[in-house]
């Protein structure tokens, strides 16, 4: 088909820095090297959440968005340090400069990962694998950090490939092996398939891409909603999304549609933490710290509402994001309604205007404010 033919000629690289925040800390402070290091949160006081953890800490099961208290329970002698976002941003900009030597088609996802389209590269190298190798080596030589790379003909597969041989890995999935690779891939390894969706798939007897491939597009839509259309295409290696360079940002967001409708409870809270953390990481990358946080909710009857909270100053910490998003969710009167989708977005990036004496520095709530 025409779309598939066009998709097959693309050369896409996904670069993902290895334990980025923790690696920068271990690079800059030798006393942290080889030790379980947790960036973000503190087991004392309010606690907070983990931004990232070194590979030494991950061996104990510590992961991002986990509470600091839980992380300490898993590894009592872990070292906790406060994030230095200015330092991470500076390193991220240098990584971006390395990318720019090869292409201008760069789509950053956060401070530590990006897609690159090198179908036509600036240096006329021609080989995406060679370009990925050179980028990884430049990051190692110039910044003393490691990155993992995935190389393929589309964004979805490149993203999966970059995670296959971490740390410091490089995985190529070429056109001739793409469909076979997707058939063998466990459903929980599909990027975007969380724990809840994976469990639902397995209850349906769907354990690999090959199992998904046996179902018709209509059946996948019945099981997983509009995401079923995506599953139908991706197990056949079809992903025509283009790498989109950064443009002027009016809002920054992340959202997810669940494979089945959720009640208000612990499972919903877990999803909210993941989604809010993803949105916050994107805001960090662009250094566009908004003063308004909006929670988007789609119910089982497909009705959509938003709840927003605005602050007098910019939202700059993950703790503030999680607390605000959770408060907005808690204030919803669900009744018997179940939730199909959650989203978190940030806006209102401009400078604060002069405020009168009657203005309060406390946050203000705007029910049903649509800021998209």
UniProtKB/TrEMBL annotation:
It catalyses: DNA(n) + a 2'-deoxyribonucleoside 5'-triphosphate = DNA(n+1) + diphosphate. Keywords: Cytoplasm, DNA damage, DNA repair, DNA replication, DNA-binding, DNA-directed DNA polymerase, Magnesium, Metal-binding, Mutator protein, Nucleotidyltransferase, Transferase. InterPro entries: DNA/RNA_pol_sf, DNA_pol_Y-fam_lit_finger_sf, DNA_pol_Y-fam_little_finger, DNA_polymerase-Y, DNApol_IV, IMS_HHH_1, Rev_trsase/Diguanyl_cyclase, UmuC. Residues 12-194 form the UmuC domain. It is found in: Cytoplasm. It is an enzyme of class 2 (transferase). The active site is at residue 113. Its main location: cytoplasm. One of its GO terms (molecular function) is magnesium ion binding. Its EC number is 2.7.7.7. GO terms for biological process: DNA repair; DNA-templated DNA replication; error-prone translesion synthesis; SOS response. Belongs to the DNA polymerase type-Y family. Poorly processive, error-prone DNA polymerase involved in untargeted mutagenesis. Copies undamaged DNA at stalled replication forks, which arise in vivo from mismatched or misaligned primer ends. These misaligned primers can be extended by PolIV. Exhibits no 3'-5' exonuclease (proofreading) activity. May be involved in translesional synthesis, in conjunction with the beta clamp from PolIII. This is DNA polymerase IV. It comes from Pedobacter planticolens. The gene is dinB.
């Amino acid at each position: 088909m025409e779309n598939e033919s066009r998709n097959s000629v693309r050369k896409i690289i996904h670069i993902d820095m290895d334990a980025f925040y923790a690696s920068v800390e271990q690079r800059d402070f030798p006393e942290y090297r080889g030790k379980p290091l947790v960036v973000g949160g503190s087991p004392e006081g309010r606690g907070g959440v983990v931004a990232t953890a070194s590979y030494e800490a991950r061996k104990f099961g510590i992961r991002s968005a986990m509470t600091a208290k839980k992380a300490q329970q898993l590894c009592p002698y872990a070292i906790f340090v406060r994030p230095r976002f200015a330092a991470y941003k500076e390193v991220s900009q240098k990584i971006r400069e390395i990318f720019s030597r090869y292409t201008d088609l760069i789509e950053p996802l956060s401070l530590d990962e990006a897609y690159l389209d090198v179908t036509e590269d600036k240096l006329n190298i021609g080989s995406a694998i060679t370009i990925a190798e050179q980028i990884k080596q430049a990051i190692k030589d110039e910044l003393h950090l490691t990155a993992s790379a995935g190389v393929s003909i589309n964004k979805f597969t490149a993203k999966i490939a970059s995670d296959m041989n971490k740390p410091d890995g490089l995985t190529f999935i070429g056109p001739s092996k793409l469909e076979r690779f997707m058939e063998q891939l466990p459903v929980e390894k599909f990027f975007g398939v969380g724990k809840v969706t994976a469990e639902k798939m397995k209850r349906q007897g769907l354990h690999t891409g090959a199992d998904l491939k046996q179902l018709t597009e209509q059946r996948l839509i019945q099981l997983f909603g509009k995401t079923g259309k995506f599953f139908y295409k991706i197990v056949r290696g079809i992903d025509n999304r283009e790498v989109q360079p950064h443009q002027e940002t009016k809002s920054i967001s992340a959202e997810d549609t669940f494979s089945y409708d959720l009640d208000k409870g612990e499972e919903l809270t877990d999803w909210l933490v993941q989604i809010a953390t993803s949105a916050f990481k994107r805001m960090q990358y662009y250094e566009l710290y908004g003063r308004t946080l909006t929670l988007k909710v789609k119910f089982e009857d497909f009705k959509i509402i938003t709840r927003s909270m605005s602050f007098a100053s910019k939202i700059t910490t993950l703790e503030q994001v999680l607390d605000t998003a959770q408060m907005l969710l808690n204030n919803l009167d669900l009744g018997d309604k179940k939730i199909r989708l959650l989203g978190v977005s940030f806006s209102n990036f401009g400078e604060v205007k002069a405020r009168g004496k009657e203005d309060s520095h406390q946050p203000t709530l705007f029910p049903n404010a649509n800021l998209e």
